[in-house]
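May I ask for a single protein's sequence together with how it folds?
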Amino acid sequence: MTDLVTDFLKSPLIELRLWRQFLAVAEELHFSRAARRLNMTQPPLTQAIAQLEVLLGLKLFDRTKRSVELTVAGMALIPEARDLLTRAYALPAYARASADGEAGRLRLAFVSTVGFDLLPGWVRAFREQHPKVQLELIEATGDVQLQAFERGEIDAGFMLHSPGFAPPGLVCRRIAQDPLVVAVPEQSDLAAKDRITLDDLIEQPLVIFPRRILPSLYDAIFAMYHASGQLPRVAQEAIQMQTIVNLVSAGLGIAWVPDSVRQFQRPGVVYRTLFSTKPPANVIGRTKGRAGSTRPGKAHPTEVPGCETSLIWSNTSANPVLARFVAFIGQSAE
């Protein structure tokens, strides 16, 4: 136990009543008037001030038969005592507001893509409607958010994922849908094309996030390549979408990003929508069998996966602020 904690535990607890009496005398500088203001007689008030001075080990007033003056210590205590009483009087209202979700704290995680467009406006509006709520914002990828939920470190999170994603043990409410677009270096031949197909991208090095941080969307992107009988050529992995776009700008490859990332105006990068095409000729009408043989199959155009942004939270949370925030996002995202 630290010396500071030890000293605190040994120090006397001073009742709010004594501070109210101190302020009355400090403001009136007259014991009789202060007593009338407090609806009490003068002798008990004089005894209360003497008790406070003993507890503090300080002299707060210089008293004569004709005058009462504050000491330096007494003068210094006036603003602190006023603040203490103001906060004490506000406690009942704060407790009621906390129970109703109008005050308290919400720990909100978010992925960077939400910060490009949706999050700033929502945060501003929620704070305007609920000024007594402390909103603690934490930027975190999906895998980090799931771990934080398990440890009880966050109340809710905005998470990017592929359609149909359902985190076990958590509530998932979709708030936005985004198509995937291709980020390509501005100096590449692809940037000059009006129409880009998957055939144009097969041999291009790919910059992508690690599977562990967004497995559902990672698998959907790989499945798109697999459907055309190809494997993407991964050149570099990066965690944040801003970093991925920066690496594209540096010419390290192309990247699949949510359309909302267009808001991140990075010089040297252009965004293109993929046009649907049929699979390459060597796989049209044929699919691989279990032992590597081929069998007749149906050709399908390339389907570019989409992605969704959802608000994730635990339905076992007892935080009343969370219910307020979920309702707010439900209205704002409509």
Remarks:
- The chain has a mean pLDDT of 84.
